[in-house]
Every structure is written in C-alpha cells, then in structure tokens.
Write a structure and sequence with these properties.
The protein is mainly β. The protein has four domains: about 180 residues, Jelly Rolls (Sandwich), CATH 2.60.120.200; about 110 residues, CalX-beta domain (Immunoglobulin-like), CATH 2.60.40; about 500 residues, YVTN repeat-like/Quinoprotein amine dehydrogenase (Methylamine Dehydrogenase, Chain H); about 60 residues, no CATH class. About 5% of the residues lie in helices and about 40% in strands. The protein contains five helices and 59 strands. Strands 1, 3, 4, 5, 7, 10 and 12 form a seven-stranded antiparallel beta sheet that branches. A five-stranded antiparallel beta sheet has the order 2-6-11-8-9, with no helix packed on it. Strands 14-21-19-16-17 form a five-stranded mixed beta sheet, with no helix packed on it. β28 and β29 form a beta hairpin. Pfam families: Calx-beta (PF03160), choice_anch_I (PF22494).
C-alpha cells in the first residue's frame, strides 16, 4: 500500500472510532479513584470511618463481618466500594439521620449515543424493619433536591450484589441520582458500587413483591398484596400470582378464597403498583395464626426480581381468648427483698429452714451466702438480713440446701474444671467442714428422709474444649448427721460405664456431640448433670442432663445409674404446639412451623398421684457456646443450609419475620449426612412436661400454653417474651430464642390437691397448675411482680421453694422465689379457697377405638379426638398426639404399640 494511502485509511479509521465513542455517552463511579470515575458525587454527612465503633460511611475495601449475622461484602469490581454500617453512632451524635450520596447532574446528549440507563449495584445485610435503603432519580438540572420526590426502596437483605437499572425517559435534559440510607446497629450494613450512566438497550421492566410477609386479622375481610414495577416500559406487562403448596397452614376455600392463578396487568408506561386482593374468612374457631404462600410467575413483557417473588401471608386469629385460670388457690405478693445491687449481686437459689425460720440465698455473682430471717403474719412478711458469708475461701457458690440447721453449699472450684466441694455451715454461717465432690457442682439437695445429700456435678469444659471433666453425681451419706460426714461419706458416680454405648444412646435420642472434631468428648464427658429431684421414698434420684436432652435415674442405695432416657422434643407443626418465632414481627404470631423444639429441661420435681411417681420438667433449653464449639446459629445464617427437598420454600422460612431470626442448633437435623439440614431443631420446649418416672413416657406437655398465657395477660402481655435484662423490658425480644424459658419448678400438696409451680426466667413470674390428673393439668393462676415499663421489680426467677403452712412463720403456705437478675427474694402468700373433697371420684375415660386394627400401613382412624402418646412395646414414646382423630402409620416398624390418651384411655394397636 502507498504510504499516503495507509495514513489516509488509518486517519479515517481513527476518526470513526472517535466519533463512535463520542456518540456512546457514559459516566461512571466505581470509588476506585481512577480516571474512569467521572460521575462526581457529594456525601452528606461527610465521610467517616470509626472501626472501633463499627461506624462506617466511606470508601472501603470491604464492609461487614462473616459469621452468625451475615456475610462480608467485597467490592463488586475493582478494589473499593462505598460502605455503610451503624449510621447512628458517635459521628452523628447517636442520632438517626439520613445519609446521602448525591451524584451531580449530567446533561443527556442528543442522538443515538445518548445515555439511556442509570445503573448501580448494592449489597445489603440484615437491615432491620425500621431501617431504610433507597434511591431517587431526577431528570433535570436542579441544584437541590425538591421537597417532594419519589424514593424507591431497596431490599434490606440481599446478601449478594444486586444490580438496579433505571431507564431514562425520552426528552430528559439531565440525569442526577441520589442514594440514601438510614440505619443503626453494627450487625447490619450495606454497600454501593459501580454507579454508571450508560447507553444501553432499554431494559425490561422488573416486577417484585413489596414485602416477603404480610399480616392480616381474619376479621379484616381482605388482604392486599402490592406488586411493584421498576423501569416501566412502553408496552404493558403481566404476571401471574399462584398459591404455593408446602409452606401453608391455612386452607384455601376455608380460611381464604383463592381458586386459581390470578393475572396482574401493568399498563404501558405506568409505574403504579398493582394490588392482589384476597378475601379472608372470619371463622369462629380459636386457633393458631395461620399462613399461606403466594408466588409470582410467568411474567410477560417484564422480568422478576430474584428473591422477591414469594410472600408469606399470616392470618391472625381473633377468636382465641386468654387461658382460663381456676384460681382455687391464689398467690399474693407479700414482699421482695434485695440482697445487694443487681449486676454485682444475685439471688440464684434459695433454701428455707423451718427450724430457724431463716432463708439461705446463693449469691453467685456477689460470691456470698446471704442469710435472712423471715417473720410476719399472713398479711405482711418481713425479711431481715442476718449475715453475709464470703465464699471466696472456698470457690464459687452455685447452690444451697438446708436441713435442721445444717447448711450445705455446692461450691465450684476456683479452677472450674477441677473437683468441686460441698461446704457445710451452721445456721449462723459459721464454717463446719467441707468434702470434695465432682467438677462444677451445680445443684444440691437433701433426700426427703434426710439420709443423703446429692449434688449434680455439671462438669462443663473450658472454652477451648481442651479440659472437659466428666459429669457426675455425688451422693453424701448423711445418716449420721453432720458429725458423721467425712470424705469417705462421699460417693461420686460417673458415666464411664456408658462410654461404649454412644451409638445406641444417639439412636435412643440422647444428644452426644461435645468436644472438637479431632478430640470428641466421651459419653462420660458429654453428660452434664444439671438438676436433681428425689423420689418420695428417697430410693431414687432423677437427674436432668440438660444439654443431652435426657434424664438419668440413680439408685441411691446401690449408687448405680439404672437408666438414661431422652425427654424428646416438641413438634411445632402440630396443633397445640405453636410458637411466636420472630423478634422482628410487631405482631404476636403464635403459628405452627415445620420445626422441632428440643425440650432440654433445667429444673425438675417429683410428685405422686395415686401411688404413681411423676416428674415435672421445666423445658428451658440450652445451647453449648464455647470458643471451640458453638452450636447455636440463626436459621437465616448462610452457613445453615436447608435441604431443598425437605424445605422447598427455604427462602421464606429464612425471612426475619418468619423463622430467619430463630436460634437453632447446627448439631442435629442433617439426617442423611450431606451437609444440609433435613430437620430443624430449636432450643427449648417453651413448656413444662410431666413424665411417668418409671417408664419415662411423657404423659403431658403444656405445648404453647405458657406463651398463650403470657401473651394474653391483661398486664404482662405488654412485655410478652421480654428478656430479663436489667434495662427496660422490650416486648418479644426473646421470641427468636427460647421464649419465656421455663426455669424452675416445684410441687406441693394443699388439702387433697397436688399443685405445680413453674417459674418463667425471661418474662418473670410463676404459673400455677393443678396436677391431680397428671395427663390433664389445670391452670390455676399466673402472677408476676415486674415493672412493665422500667427495669425494676423481680427479674430472672431461678430458684423456687414452697413452704407448707406447718413450716411457715406466718401459719400460711408461702412460695419463695429467688430472682437472679434483680437480686431479689420474693415472698408470695398462698391463699386456699373452696371446700375439701378428700375422695374426689376418678373420671372415667370415654372408650377409645382404633380402625383398622391391625393396620397394614396408611391411616388409622380414632373413634374420637384425643391428645396423648403412642408408645412402643417397651413403653418408649414414639409419637405425640394433640387432639388428633387419626394417625399415620408410615414410618412405624411392624409390631405392637399402645396409645395412651391423656384422659386415661388406652388402646393397643398392631402394625403389620
């Protein structure tokens, strides 16, 4: 080619490129500080980055933290992003204010190269309901934002980079963009990146549901579900809304009307929401909150926003009433005594000695044994301090028991994993002697006949799980009184005999999971005794193994364990076992969910009815939380993956207004070992259970009664599921954990009736039940002495003691409550009402029939609806029934079963 011709072609080609580049308008900002970052912006308020306070509003290399509350965001591209976290903090004077990035107006070019879209990317994590993340676009050359402008809300929990595209309307002279946020809290954060003004083909409109959940009262008549459109196009767009099977407890045609798929149409050019209106039925049946799921599908002329296509609609029942309280006895608060400032003192466990009319209080935080005298009349009781004994020379006090002026304290070693002690004092607190017991004695009691002192030695590991002592029970021979007690009087019984039975124990439902992957705990190390109850004849001790979800039985004469049985779990999908599972939904939504609640009992007590011994357990729940092993995780955590087959609606379950905030265990539920969870197990039953002490069979579980009771209480419903912290109570802030957390339990016989008293650790107070029919306890009363507006009153009940009339200083029965958080001892007088019916006739159960029987698979129908337990031939619980008129035999092995109804009826069932 001729050199001049080459130069001419080259110049022409270069001019063509330049002209093309000029026609394709673009402006961008990637926060990289590069020459390509041409779209200028102004930050209001000014940039700040205070890592010590997690307060960030600045260009960052990443934002957020990995772990239980989310995933960390790297830049979408490049090495930088605009990050924000805890926008209410020291830089803003701890005031919640709007934060803006205002991008300067850019003139829109003319011709085919003119900019057609505004795009940006954002990443959000766990923004709360009250937080906001939004944007606004103006198509003019204004220097200030108008007072009235339209913000488009962004998803508050994408956990991934999401692109937003906004079309520039024809005829626009300029484009300017505002990104806006208002937020507090350092466990939720967001980021922006890759802001650009580009020339691109017109994007299809995007359709999305405005929220992932909706709540409607069943009396409202209808519920409205808005669907929004972004980037409205020149043509109309449509989308179908359909019912989704699988995640629903409401019935179409009965609870709401939705016969077939419905189509929503968005007119051409319209950016207005379209609304799906669904009729709701107002029935007269008292029931749990019900829900159903809708999904957007088959869009035409539009696309769907990922993660915003499903909505869970709650129908809140308006027929339920507060549980009836029989009030045949009444608890009246007489006084509360504070044994020291809360926070630096505690009143954890209390013991009463009728021979001296003194109370002995385990003040574990203060490191003291506090001694009080109690006196007064049925109308007024006085607690007077006698002495306060420092436990520093002995270790840390965990529990106390007293009998006949002898005070026995369970004391943890200063090196907690080393053997602990029982330290004896006289009635005035003068040291007498001490003996060595197992590691971490957590509870101590005298047997009813006074022949034994028993301690439950929890044996917890250190944080790194490098020192894990064996759990044990120590039995002290006290037949000769304190004078006869020596170290030789102590027998510490461990669980080493079970070390070769781990597989069989797990199969039987015992939780064994302690230790690390390289050094798993032995069975003896994994068992952690929590609490002891002794049979009326002082022959057997029953010990809760809380973290193991089990009860051990110890023969006090042979000093041998005779059995370890699981206490099972709640099936929260069944009627009568609903729960309020979210701390973020403003409504109390007692609903059934596809989850199970591990009972994990703390305290227990034994009682007898017609010669049969029963156990009542307070199903508090507990999780192991150590540096080397933390089993608790939020259900919405990215590491907690739900099996797609078992939970096809996992994204909705993980929504914070559904189950996303619920604390669950990551040590149970992966049934096939493939790394995801096929079953969901939460902590605690939120209930009490009554078990047959001989067989271990659950004869009754209170299910959702305690939450229904407290949520409907005319006074304390205002602080339903509030924590027991020392600040002002916050309603529902424990709904995502273990709810009311039943902690303590004791029983008493008044006249001809056995009563059970169950304390609620979080909300506070005591619920009283008539348990003369163990299969059908009857609610008597709920009382509380906590402020509903301030951090005052009795908070955090733990120890609970009943004082009979003959042992009471007032001649009236008393109930004593040790409140750990407020460091107070509360005294309630027990007033009896009504007449004695010494020989109450036994109720005869209505006959119960099963058919077909024998069963050959499929459904077995019951002649009437019953609540009860299906047991196998060995008496082990297999299924729990709650007002069921049928049961499915699928999954049951061939054999003989017994259905034991709570009303006393029994019927044998054969499966072939």
């Amino acid at each position: 080619m001729h050199p001049n011709l080459y130069l001419l072609v080259s110049a022409t080609f270069a001019l063509g490129l330049s002209a093309g580049a000029a026609r394709a308008q673009s402006s961008s900002q990637g926060f990289e500080g590069a020459a390509s970052d041409t779209w200028t912006y102004t930050a209001t308020p000014a940039t700040y980055n205070v890592p010590a306070d997690n307060d960030q509003w600045a260009i960052l290399s990443d934002v957020g933290t990995t772990g239980a509350n989310g995933v960390q965001a790297p830049p979408a591209t490049g090495t930088k992003l605009w990050g924000m976290r805890d926008l209410q903090g020291p830089p803003t004077g701890d005031v919640s204010i709007w934060h803006f990035l205002d991008f300067a107006p850019v003139a829109v070019q003319s011709g085919s190269g003119a900019a057609t879209t505004v795009t940006f990317k954002y990443f959000s994590n766990a923004f709360d309901t009250s937080d906001s993340l939004a944007y606004a676009v103006q198509f003019d050359n204004g220097t200030t934002w108008p007072a009235t402008r339209t913000y488009t809300q962004l998803s508050k929990d994408t956990r991934a980079w999401t692109t937003v595209t906004v079309s520039i309307p024809a005829g626009s002279s300029h484009v300017r963009l505002r990104l806006a946020a208002r937020q507090n809290g350092n466990d939720d954060w967001a980021a922006w990146d890759d802001v650009a003004l580009t020339n691109a083909a017109p994007a299809l409109p995007t359709l999305r549901l405005s929220a992932a959940t909706a709540v409607v009262d069943e009396a409202a008549g209808t519920v409205s579900i808005p669907v929004s459109i972004q980037n409205a196009g020149a043509a109309a767009a449509t989308v179908q809304a359909v019912l989704v099977p699988g995640l629903s407890t409401a019935t179409a045609g009965t609870d709401f009307t939705y016969a077939a798929a419905q189509t929503l149409t968005f007119p051409a050019g319209s950016s207005a929401n379209q609304t799906l209106t669904i009729p709701i039925s107002n029935d007269t049946q008292a029931e749990a909150a019900e829900y159903f799921t809708l999904r957007l599908q088959n869009p035409s002329g539009a696309t769907l926003t990922t993660g915003a296509t499903d909505v869970l609609v709650f129908i809140k029942d308006n027929d339920a009433t507060a549980p009836t309280q029989g009030r045949d006895i009444r608890l009246n608060h007489l006084t509360s005594y504070q044994n020291g400032a809360s926070g630096t003192n505690s009143a954890e466990i209390i013991a009463h000695d009728p021979t001296t009319q003194r109370l002995y209080v385990a003040n574990s935080i203060g490191g003291k044994l506090d001694i009080l005298s109690i006196s007064g009349t049925p109308a007024a009781v006085t607690l007077t301090p006698v002495a306060s004994i420092s436990m520093a020379p002995y270790g840390g006090i965990n529990s106390v028991a007293v009998r006949g002026g002898v005070v026995a304290c369970a004391v943890e070693n200063a090196a907690p994993q080393s053997p602990g002690a029982v330290v004896f004092f006289n009635q005035d607190g003068t040291f007498q002697k001490q003996v060595t017991v197992g590691a971490m004695p957590d509870m101590i009691t005298f047997s009813p006949d006074g022949q034994y002192i028993i301690t439950a030695n929890e044996g917890e590991p250190n944080a790194a799980y490098t020192n894990d002592p064996e759990g044990s029970v120590s039995v002290i021979d006290f037949a000769g009184g304190l004078a006869g007690v020596t170290q030789a009087s102590v027998t510490t019984v461990g669980f080493t005999g079970y070390n070769g039975q781990a597989a069989a124990l797990r199969t039987a439902g015992i939780r064994l999971y302690g230790g690390t992957a390289t050094a798993p705990s032995t069975v003896a190390q994994d068992f952690e005794p929590e609490y002891v109850a002794v049979s009326a004849d002082s022959r057997l001790a029953y010990i809760t193994l809380q973290e193991n979800n089990a009860i051990a039985t110890l023969d006090l004469q042979t000093k041998q364990f005779t059995g370890i049985r699981t206490v099972g779990f709640q099936d929260h999908s069944q009627p009568g076992f609903s729960l309020d599972a979210s701390d973020e939904s403003s409504e109390v939504l007692m609903a059934n969910w596809p989850i199970r609640g591990l009972r994990l009992p703390d305290a227990l007590a034994s009682f007898q009815v017609q010669g049969t011994t029963y156990l009542i357990t307070a199903n508090e729940g507990d999780a192991r939380e150590y540096t080397a092993l933390t089993e608790g995780v939020r259900l919405n955590n990215a590491s907690y993956v739900l099996d797609a087959t078992a939970f096809p609606n996992a994204a909705l379950l993980k929504n914070n207004n559904a189950l996303g905030r619920l604390n669950v265990t990551n040590k149970l539920g992966d049934t096939d070992g493939d790394g995801d969870f096929d079953e969901i197990y939460a902590f605690g039953g939120r209930s009490f259970s009554i078990l047959n002490a001989s067989t271990g069979a659950v004869v009754h579980d209170s299910g959702d009664l305690l939450e229904r009771l407290t949520s409907t209480d005319p006074t304390y419903g205002a602080i339903f599921n509030a924590s027991n912290s020392t600040g002002n109570p916050v309603r529902k802030n424990r709904s995502d954990d273990k709810g009311p957390e039943p902690e303590g339990v004791t029983t008493a016989v008044l006249r001809d009736t056995v009563y059970a008293f169950v304390s609620l650790e979080r909300m506070g107070g005591v619920a009283v039940f008539d348990v003369n029919n163990p299969a059908q306890p009857r609610l008597v009363q709920y009382v509380n002495n906590r402020s509903i507006t301030t951090g005052s009153g009795d908070q955090g009940p733990e120890g609970i003691v009943f004082v009979s009339a003959q042992n009471s200083p007032t001649g009236q029965p008393l109930l004593l409550l040790a409140n750990e958080v407020s460091s107070t001892v509360a005294v309630y007088g027990v007033q009896q009402r009504g007449t004695v019916t010494a020989n109450r006739p036994a109720r005869r159960a209505e006959p119960l029939y099963l058919y077909p029987n024998p069963a050959h698979g499929g459904t077995v129908r019951l002649s009437r609806a019953v609540s009860g337990t299906l047991c196998d031939a060995l008496g082990r619980p297999v299924r729990q029934l709650s007002q069921a008129d049928r049961l499915e035999t699928a999954g049951l092995a061939a054999g003989v079963y017994v259905l034991r109804a709570d009303d006393g009826a029994t019927r044998r069932m054969v499966v072939r």
